[in-house]
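TA notes. Do not distribute before section.
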Amino acid sequence: MSKVWFVTGSSRGLGRCFVEAALSRGDKVAATARSTASLGDLVATYGDAVLPLETDVTDRAAVFDSVKRAAGHFGRLDVVVNNAGYAQVGAIEELTEQELREQLETNLFGAVWVIQAALPILREQGAGHFVQLSSAAGLIAVPLGAAYHASKWAVEGLNESLAHEVAGFGVKVTVIEPGGFATRNGKNPDPLDNGHSAAPNPVYNGLRERLAGMTGEQPAGDPVAAARALLKIVDADEPPLRVLFGQGFLPMIQQAYADRLRTWADWQDLSIEAHGGPGA
């Protein structure tokens, strides 16, 4: 049976590839974007199988309206993809309150509004699948990424909790953690040239050079291949809660987790002392 998708951030990048992959195999898609102008070619090709919805995920009422329209148009929702988001770059000292709030409004609260709007529908159906685009940056942290990390670490916890809450309703949850993908002219997006950089303080120029170097070292993944991989996940009887997309980050993540475990173990005596009870 064909599936009905609801995908945020569908105008470009991975979101656009996810939409095209679903449509090309005969699924139906409610594709949301802040501007649906770029989705016109999909309507011309796939007709009624695609429903473009102009939606800003930071607008809770607009999100609820779009989800309601999508479910009413197609009769159900099977796969809900929280893809909309961006990366705010800047040292913590450089970030303005507005920059930090806008990052969380889009990446975290936008995801919450979509979940809250779609969950009653999926729960009533007794089936459905939430897919959350996180990032390798939701698992490890680098300098100048605090705002983005905060948002992605938050959606990691949000969706792990969600998975426990909805399992009894037949609803599944998967968090996708991509590394770098060639979504901008065949290259990894440049984090320092994405339109979301805080006003620079020269004392952090060395860290900016380091970040640019790290980005350049990572292999750029193929967004079309990522979309094919996502199809396998949503078709799986037992999809993973978390899965990395791309190469290069697994060793870094393994090292980060090993370091955390070692630190907790090394300081276990103090942990027990801090408890203050028997055995301290």
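Switch to the second chain here.
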Amino acid sequence: MSYPTDRPAAWFVTGASRGLGLALVTHLLERGDQVAATTRSAERLLAGLAGVDTSNLLALEVSLTDEAQVTHAISETTKRFGRIDVVVNNAGYGYLGAVEETSSADVQAMFDVQIGGSWNVIRSVLPQMRAAGSGHIVSISSILGVLSFPGWGLYCAAKFALEGLSESLAAEVADFGVRVSIVEPGYFNTDFLTDDSLALADDVSDAYPGIREMIQAHQAMPGSQPGDPAKAAEALITIAQREDGPLRQQLGSDSSSLAEGKADSLKAEILAGRVLAHSTDYVR
């Protein structure tokens, strides 16, 4: 069993000082679980947890792109709690801009955090999970890891990559008793669309007025998103407790509907292209 029933579970949550990460850490502490929470600012994390009992919290200031720092954080968590039952790779940020407007530095920075950071955590925690024969790694993707919108090319590229990494990982570690889940949220009422969490392309072009309009629409969205972060936190715990749950789980009615439409359109495209696809085989 990957999730303990005889003691508080020990969680390692990245990107914990805001958004879904903060909502999850808050809920875990309130239910009595043990939580190692990584952040770039422990002060901001603790401010977000004002009024919450933090006796079971290990706040860690970590740069996830620094493998040595990540390894140290995993070691400190294990020393404090004895083991790690659940890892939630949640750290990341949004980015809006046309593909043509996206600089090589922007690409590097996004993949360093979203993929490099997640990879560092996975490499560091897997040896102990394999040895224990249990554990659960949860990758926080997005509905934009399933389908793409104009202006979200870089963010989608990173989330698509995270999904590919996680799907391979799930197959690799299944025989060790370690589970992997990919969570695909839609729009939740967090600060994800605010200036601190949403980067914009610097070198914009007049060729993409539609993307400028789309950016303005997203910047006006905060407060109107359909998803409730507190309910998302509860759902993440439900996912972690599953022994035979699905590899992928959408969160939010918007995410579920968009994923269903993507699945239908993808199947239709595959069927429409079947004859041409088969025609490229050798005739034997």
